[in-house]
Amino acid sequence: MNELIVKVSHCRTHLEKLNWLPPLLARITLGWVFVMSGWGKLQHMPKVIDFFTSLELPAPDFLAHLVAFSELFCGVLIFLGLLSRLASIPLSIIMIVAILTAKWPDLKEFSDLFKFSEFLYLLLFVWIVIEGPGKVSLDYITFKKR
Questions:
Q1: Out of 65-74, 75-84, 101-110, which region has the weakest mean confidence (pLDDT)?
Q2: How far apart are CA 134 and CA 3, in angstroms?
Q3: Does the predicted TM-score (pTM) go above 0.85?
Q4: Half-sphere exposure of 23 toward its Cβ, with a 13 Å CA cutoff?
Q5: For the segment 29-44, what is each residue's pLDDT rounded down to a tens digit?
Q6: Is the dihedral of CA 120, 125, 131, 134 positive or negative?
Q7: Mean pLDDT, rounded, for 68-94
Q8: Which residues 6+ apart lie within 8 Å of 134 measured at CB?
Q9: What secondary structure letter does DSSP report for 105?
Q10: Phi, psi (5° rounding) for residue 12?
Q11: Whole-number pLDDT of residue 18
């Protein structure tokens, strides 16, 4: 039994050395998704405006541009780990609005939220706001406490 405890402790010690990796992978993936999403919206703006119009959003032209530029710019910031907490806020709002508008008809019960990628993105943004972007980020390099 003691041998098992020693092995688990040894394994945990090695895994703790990799605690920088999960935030990095999550942030890079999330940033890339939103850079590509924002860029795609900018490339197909008339379709995005039509979609926002079909959702009966106010000022669909303005909102389509705002969402596209926010996704692109904030996605780059999150990818780089620069001002990540701040950049996560507008993207969180976009995800909440997406769930409440585009996804709302598909929401029959609470568990349906877990089927939406927007909900997963929202949870990851909340995590970044609370925990920060991790040690491998421009935020950490720039703002770490000395």
A1: 101-110
A2: 33
A3: yes
A4: 24
A5: 999 999 999 999 999 9
A6: positive
A7: 97
A8: 20, 22, 23, 24, 27, 81, 140
A9: G
A10: -60, -40
A11: 86
Q: What residue type is 141 in one-letter code? A: I
Task: Give CA–CA dist 61/51, Å, rounded.
Answer: 10
Residues 6+ apart with CB under 8 A from 135: 19, 20, 23
Residue type, 135: K
In angstroms, rounded to a whole number, what is the distance separating the alpha carbons of residues 101 and 58? 12
Reply yes or no on whether the pLDDT at 146 is more than 80: no
Token representation of residue 86:
């701040």
Report residue 73 as tokens.
């710019």
Joined tokens for residue 56: 């009966």
CA dist., res. 53 & res. 48, Å (int): 8
> Which residue carries 């402790």 as its tokens?
9
In angstroms, the CA 67 to CA 55 distance is 14
* pLDDT computed for residue 112 by the predictor: 87
Distance CA 65, CA 38 (A): 9
Output Rg (C-alpha) for the chain, integer angstroms. Answer: 19
